[in-house]
Amino acid sequence: MPHTPPETKHTSSEAFDRLLQVLHTLREECPWDKKQTMESLRLLTIEEMYELTDAILDKDTDEIKKELGDVMMHLVFYARIAEEQKRFDIVDVLNAVCDKLITRHPHIYGDIQVANAEEVKQNWETIKLKEGNKSVLSGVPNGLPSLVKAYRIQDKVRGVGFDWEDKTQVWEKVEEELAEFKAEFNLEDETEIDHDKAELEFGDLLFSLINYARHVGINPENALARTNKKFIFRFSHLEKRAGENGQQLKDMTLAEMDVYWNEAKSLKS
C-alpha cells in the first residue's frame, strides 16, 4: 500500500523534519535505499558536491538550490545509517557542530577581542590545537585534489603566521621556481634530462603560483575551473563548425582550426 507523502512545510525546522520523515520511509521501504552504506554513498556524495560547485560557478540559482538539497539529503542519509547502527543520530551531529562553532568563536560567545577576519582564523587554528589536533595541517584531507590541497595547506599555515609578508616576495619565489624548472630542460643533450627532478620542480612552480594567487585574492581552483569551461566551450564550437563544413579535425591544419577558435572567442560561453 503506497505511503502518503508528508505535506510541504513552511518553516525551516518543519521542512527539515519532513526530510527526516522521507528518508526514514525510504530507508525502510525502498530496496535501493535499504541496501546503501556509508561506503556506497561516499562517491555519490563527492559527485553531488562537484555538481554543486558547477552550479555555483555557473551562477545558476535554481540548480544551486537543487544541488544543495541533494547534498543535504546525503548528510541526513549518513546520520540515519549511523542511528540504525546505534553510533549517533542527526541530533548528535547538529549539536556537535553547534558546540564546535561556539567554542571556536570566542569573540562572539566569549570575551576575546579580534580586530579582523585574519585574527579570527588565527584563533580558530590555535583552538583546534588546544582541542587535541597534533598539527595545523591535520585537518587537510589526504584525498583532496592536489590543487585544492595546496591552497588549503597554504591557508592553514597562514592561520598561525607562517606566510610571506607581501605579494612581491611571493612573485619572486614564482620566478625562482620557474627558472629552476626551465633549467631542467636547458641541457645540450636532451637524453640527460632528469624527468623525475623536472616533475618535482614543476610541482614547486605550481605550488608557488597557487600561493601567489592566494595572496592576490584569487582562488586557483575557481580560476582553473573557469578556464577549463572556457576551453571546452571554444573547442566544442570548433568541432561544431568543422562538422557543419564537412571537415574532420584530424585532417585540418592548426591555421584552419584557429579560424573557428577565434570565432568562439568572440562568443559568450
From TrEMBL:
CDD domains the record matches: NTP-PPase_MazG_Cterm, NTP-PPase_MazG_Nterm
Domain NTP pyrophosphohydrolase MazG-like: 36-108
Pfam family of the protein (one): MazG
InterPro entries xrefs: MazG-like_dom, NTP-PPase_MazG-like_C, NTP-PPase_MazG-like_N, NTP_PyrPHydrolase_MazG
NCBIfam families given in the database record: mazG, PRK09562.1
Name this protein carries in UniProt: Nucleoside triphosphate pyrophosphohydrolase
Organism: Sphingobacterium pedocola
